[in-house]
Write a structure and sequence with these properties.
Number of strands of chain A: 6
Number of domains of chain B: 1
CATH class of the largest domain in chain A: Alpha Beta
CATH topology of the largest domain in chain A: hypothetical protein PF0899 fold
Number of helices of chain B: 10
Radius of gyration of chain B: 17 Å
Oligomer: heterodimer
Largest sheet of chain B: 8 strands, mixed
CATH class of chain B: Alpha Beta
Distance between the termini of chain B: 34 Å
Helix content of chain A: 25-40%
Order of helices and strands of chain A: HEHEEEHHEE
Order of helices and strands of chain B: HEHEHEEHHEHEHEHEHH
Largest sheet of chain A: 3 strands, mixed
Largest interface: A-B, 41 and 41 residues
Distance between the termini of chain A: 38 Å
Number of domains of chain A: 2
Helix content of chain B: 25-40%
CATH superfamily of chain B: P-loop containing nucleotide triphosphate hydrolases
Strand content of chain A: 25-35%
Structural class of chain A: alpha+beta
Strand order of the largest sheet of chain B: 3-4-2-5-1-6-7-8
Shape of chain A: elongated
Strand order of the largest sheet of chain A: 2-1-6
CATH architecture of chain B: 3-Layer(aba) Sandwich
CATH topology of chain B: Rossmann fold
Chain lengths: ~140, ~260
Amino acid sequence: MHEWALADAVIEATSSALAGRKPSCLRAVTVTVGELQAIDHEIFSFALSTLLEERPFRTAVFHLETEPARFLCGACEKEWSLSETRDLSDQTREAIHFLPEAAHAFIRCPFCSSPDYRVQKGRGVSIASLTLDASESCA
Amino acid sequence: MIDPQTIDPRGAVVQRRLAGVGRIAAFCSAKGGVGKTLCTAVAGLALAGQGKKVGILDLDFQGSTAHVFLGVPPRFPEEEKGLLPLAVTDGLCLMSAAAFAGNRALALRGPEVSDAILELLAVTQWGRLDLLLIDMPPGIGEEVLDLGRLIPRMEALVVSTPSTASTAVVERLIAFLAEMRIVVAGVIANMVRGDAGHVRDMARKFQVPFAGEVEYDSGIESAIGFPARLAGSRTAASLLAALHAADLTRETGREG
């Protein structure tokens, strides 16, 4: 379950972002999960909550927000979404799940078939925001 | 609220993923076709044959062939709180983008190369290794810049053929590595048919160790894909000597 490695990264990066602040003042973390990587939310959430138990900010709540994938073709300049992408087999989805850049080996522009495109949004996992307790003791 | 910018969490765990790795050396050359992948693969096999635990990370996304040299068909890695490198032989394992892209072209732009490097470093569970050998793509680009920042303790093994066409370009790389503060553990002259003086002189000029010569081996082509034959080749013996000369077989303290 490689979701654990990504959850581990989120917890570690959260800890680093709290440098100089009281860790126990962390209330919430918003984690953006790119549609392209298609991580298993249940496993990812379980990994986050398990790894969180060892941290001083263990009471923080982690919210997962899925970011839809958007692609921009460099050849025809049209945009498209993952659902408009043709025929992705389970094997292909799995490859992209492990390494989102593998998309470039499989996905082509649905309008002109070009392999020249960018993933504009919705690639992988990132931390969108951390919310701290607003009380004076946490200032 | 802390919301300066979106935080990419992956960099936070790179050091921890590599904490069980003793030494990290990248086979690099600004010139293509000098035999970096052959050197990486055969060095890995030779070291594993000496009882070392070795990992190979193939970062030549556009031309990944370490798996071809090592006779490892592309397949998905097993998962264990991350991705486990593919087993090659007893003591040698491999992580490559080919495990996901197979034999398809993987045309990536600069930021995508950086993303793929960071992803592989963040999710690969190498465990305990004596050495991690990195097969770099030709050129001086994202890979050198990113690894210099993400793995400051990485050392470089610079590969060049004796051709002046190769040394002229490789000189730029050595000068650049110095600017990046990446230690050059050694320069290896590869595919040597006669005199490797150019390469030796280049190492002297830049005051970096000359690790040795690997003679052109006409039999190596038929050994590609056969780890035992590669490990038993003259090339393997020469590379082992070069790694000793570059002091890369010496144990150093692991972080974890």
